[in-house]
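Render this sequence as a predicted structure.
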Amino acid sequence: MKELFESTNYLLEGGVVSLLSDYLSIRASRGLVVRTEGEDLAILDAFGTPMNSLFIEGEAASLAGAFPSPPLKAASDVTAAPLAGEWPWAVRLRGEGWCFYILLGEEPSPDLMEEMPAFAGLLGLWQLHQKSGGAEERLSRTAYMILATKNTLASVFEPMGLDYFGCFLHDVISESLFPSKFSLLLDDGRTLSVLEGDETRLPPRKGIFGRAILSPAPVRVDESRREFIGDSVFDLLAPEWQAVLPVPGGGVRLFCLLRWDKLPDEEAFNFMELLANVASKALSLGGLNEERESHIAELSRRTFMLSALHGAALSFMEQTSREELLLRMLDIFSEMAQAPRSLIVVWQPSAGGYIHFASRKNGRIEKNGAFAGFPLILAEDSRPESRSLEEMA
């Protein structure tokens, strides 16, 4: 069983190509096992001939054109066809979503062709295993992103300051998208600054960074988006970054600059858009909460002031003399203004002007002069010039 497992694992991990090449080397003088990659042929293995290059450039179309392409009637099929050039014969082994070619120095024998369907089946199993492995890897990444989203939703809407929010967002993106380089920029309305992450050359507030309306969706830094990003900004970003993720919300504008060793797939970019939308909503709600708290504080202040004025008015009405009224006014207004020192001056005709009537310092009231009464009518030209507070003190 151990040998069976090791043999099966060897074939499913790509050993079938070596097995095919070994089989062909006994029954043909020379040959190559190739597959198409764009316009070129990628050489997977060779026998009876030196492999001077990993590619045969520009030959993919001519090789494919030598074979008919009817619909598949089984899981795989095998066809041989003559060619012109260095390799006079080729054998095609193909299945759903895959195709391999064997380039031969001579016409394949009937015995060789009889064994090719079995190798085509093995190649099909290898390709199916590769697809399954890729699907499992994508599902694993997707599951991890869903878990990251769940954990993000549990915390991102909690009240937090901008610095803490930036640190939180930086951690979430770093731990779920694994960028090799990441910088989180803050737009304060005048300039851009690094809020979290790697230091970088700061771009100007132009192009994507100067747009009045921003969508929380990732923008790839490639030539197709040059106009949207802005020419000068694109030239600055392209050598260092692969994507820009705007996160606007609640009057705050954040920009995530990201780079990877290997550019992630579409699922990762979809997750980035989801995360940016959630973060944007959290910023907007945070801004609304701050505005609400500010309004509540202002209303509380006004309520307190109105209550204090009402109490002061009642207190004024309770005073039985003008002297007591003035002292009460000094006490109440000093308390409302939270002034450590205050004084009250009054007009006293007998003194020829204003006098320093009383003062309040650190909660204690000191009376400085005697009250002599208010004149009911005093002609404007009979009032002497007033003295400064320093002179009266």
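Summary. The longest strand covers residues 353-361. The CA atoms of residues 138 and 343 lie 77 Å apart.
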